[in-house]
């Protein structure tokens, strides 16, 4: 979180150079593996139910975002049909 705090203290014009210098493949990889190791130690090795909850919530959110464009397209089609007085075929 130290990176986010220092990012919050920057001026807008300095953000791109800060991100370019701090968001590297190596830094992201290191932070990701570090987070995964801590998560493993804290939740998986202790037999916590938390990983199951995290997976279920993540899958639900992913399914919502994957299905949203189809729902939006259907909604717009129904609104357009109602605007022209056409009865929906469903």
What would the keywords be for this entry?
single chain, 90 residues, mainly alpha, 4 helices, 0% strand, flat
Description:
This protein is mainly alpha-helical. The protein folds into two domains: 1-48; 49-90, no CATH class. 77% of the residues lie in helices and 0% in strands. The protein has four helices and no strands. The chain is flat, with a radius of gyration of 22 Å. The chain starts with a helix and ends in a 7-residue tail after the last helix. The mean pLDDT is 90.
State the distance separating the first and last CA atoms.
Answer: 50 Å
Strand tally: 0
The overall pLDDT average reads 90
Low-confidence stretches: none
Question: Percent helix among the residues?
Answer: over 70%
Give the biggest beta sheet. none
Radius of gyration, in angstroms, nearest whole number: 22 Å
**Hey, roughly how much beta strand do the residues contain?**
under 5%
- What is the count of DSSP helices, taking H or I runs of 4+ residues? 4
Q: Which structural category fits the helices and strands?
A: mainly alpha
Secondary-structure element order, N to C:
HHHH
How many domains comprise the coordinates?
2
Choose one word for the global shape.
flat
